[in-house]
Design a protein that fits this description.
Elements lengths: L6 E5 L2 E5 L1 E2 L7 E2 L4 H5 L19 E4 L4 E4 L2 E2 H7 L2 H10 L5 H13 L5 H8 L7 H15 L8 H25 L14 H10 L10 H14 L6 H10 L5 H12 L7 H15 L3 H9 L20 H13 L7 H15 L2 H5 L7 H11 L6 H22 L27
Antiparallel strand pairs: 1-2, 3-4, 5-6, 6-7
The structure holds carboxymethyl coenzyme *A.
The site of carboxymethyl coenzyme *A (CMC) has 21 residues, from loops.
Length: 429
């Protein structure tokens, strides 16, 4: 990669040097923090297309080359060898844990999976057909009231909040899966493997027993790993910006859940599956649907395609497709839909519209098919993304707090409203 040596900006004939901040790999940054003071100008960058909001040592993405690394480890190696809780530890603490550290972390999370009676009452008060992302956001925010000993910014409190967020959100999500079909919360057991236990409390009968299918468990573990972090995406930036006001970790993560729920972000996994169903129901061929997308017919967007950063195949999407290929038939999945999705992908990838704009399948294109084959209801797909993203949100919140350069997030604007009006009394309007 070529390194820019210096940067200068000329405003009204006066040149100013802009300091360059160096990355270890990837884009360096041109610092504009003093520009307003020095020149009276702000920078304009809707959607933060070109703005680095912080330094971070957690996740690296090369969107052109399709590379994703957590703490320097390629996602493919972690997908092949690791487990979700090990990856969570890595993201949050910066190093892969030893066997003892991982066992202790697993035990601590497992010990905290039970939820307070008050939380059960609180969850039970939502309408049964409430979207689970709304309930999840409320439940995470409410955790701060049930566990006040974990709300502060000391190392111990943050470590406890980390464990509680990973543990309680799994149990809350399991209950939301069961509740939609009239089921009761299944009490978590201590000491089990995190993903095994999550599947048991999601899918066991009322007796609480379930032989977890190891193929399914491996697939879910992998999907959680693939979602665990993605640097400064919309929900993570939300967590950081809320946390920058020194709001507690629960309030910040709850806001992240809200951001994730949108169909342009995590909600795309649900939207993609609904799109496949709509294509089937409409009787349109996939070719016709792709033509509608290109013609920008209202409501026709290829969900699960495109990405702000990846201008090549999303490496997470590639892993998801590989698992879908390997296990969908074993799991009794919906192969007709999988075949249709593959055909959609094939057509889009050979179409000039998508080629020109460098639009490829992202992580959300095939995940819904796998979740559905595992037995999850469609509204549960985005909560599963949230469960996976939890370590990333926690790691970024903690990194943001520890960074002496953190300031409250507060962008500027270009004001385009009225400039000077005199108040008109109501009777005269
Ligand atoms: N279908 C059709 N056209 C698209 C799509 C798509 N999925 N994505 C982008 N485009 C077009 C877009 O219309 C624009 O065309 P033009 O320049 O002619 O106006 C061009 O490609 C650039 O798109 P953009 O919307 O300016 O790009 P962005 O970086 O602002 O948006 C995105 C990125 C992910 C929001 C967008 O690609 C999208 O809406 N995708 C569908 C939703 C989706 O799958 N989201 C999940 C993202 S990955 C999981 C996660 O991390 O959340």
């Amino acid at each position: 990669m070529t390194r820019v040596v210096d940067a200068r900006l000329t405003v009204d004939g006066t040149a100013r040097e802009l300091p360059i901040e160096r990355s270890t790999i990837g884009n360096d940054g041109m610092s504009v923090s003093t520009l307003l003071k020095d020149t009276g100008l702000v920078t304009v960058d809707p959607g933060f297309m070109n703005t680095a909001s912080c330094e971070s040592a957690i996740t690296y993405i090369d969107g052109d080359a399709g590379i994703l690394k957590y703490r320097g480890y390629p996602i493919e190696q972690l997908a092949e060898n690791s487990t979700f809780l090990e990856v969570a530890y890595l993201l949050i603490h910066g190093e892969l844990p030893t066997e003892d550290l991982l066992a202790a972390f697993n035990n601590r999370v497992s010990r905290h999976m039970h939820v307070h009676e008050g939380i059960k009452t609180f969850l039970g008060a939502f309408p049964r057909d409430a979207h689970p992302m709304a309930v999840l956001s409320g439940a995470i925010s409410a955790l701060s009231t049930f566990y006040p000993e974990s709300v502060g910014n000391s190392e111990e409190e943050l470590e406890l909040a980390t464990v509680l967020l990973l543990a309680k959100s799994a149990t809350v999500i399991s209950y939301l899966q069961r509740r939609a079909s009239g089921g009761e919360l299944i009490e978590p057991r201590r000491g089990g493997h995190y993903v095994d236990e999550f599947m048991r409390i999601c899918f066991s009968g009322a007796d609480g027993e379930l032989d977890v299918d190891p193929v399914m468990r491996k697939a879910l573990d992998l999907l959680l790993i693939l979602h665990a972090d993605h640097e400064q995406n919309c929900s993570t930036s939300t967590v950081r910006i809320v946390g920058s006001s020194q709001a507690n970790i629960y309030a910040s993560v709850a806001a992240g859940v809200g951001a994730l729920s949108g169909p342009l972000h995590g909600g795309a996994n649900e939207a993609a599956l609904r799109m496949f169903d709509q294509i089937k129901e409409s009787g349109d061929s996939v070719e016709t649907f792709v033509a509608k997308v290109k013609d920008r017919v209202e409501g026709a967007r290829l969900m699960g395609f495109g990405h702000r950063v990846y201008k090549s195949y999303d490496p997470r999407g590639a892993q998801v497709k590989k698992i879908a290929n390997q296990i969908l038939s074993d799991l009794g999945g919906n192969n007709e839909t999988f075949e249709m999705a593959q055909r959609l992908e094939e057509i889009a990838l050979s179409d000039e519209y998508f080629i020109e704009r460098k639009l490829y399948p992202n992580v959300d294109f095939y995940t819904g098919l796998l979740y559905s084959a595992m037995g999850f209801d469609t509204p549960m797909f985005t909560p599963l993304f949230a469960l996976g993203r939890m370590p990333g949100w926690i790691a970024h919140y903690r990194e943001m707090l520890a960074d002496p350069r953190t300031k409250i997030g507060r962008p500027r604007q270009i004001y385009t409203g009225e400039t000077d009006r005199a108040y008109t009394p109501i009777a005269e309007r």
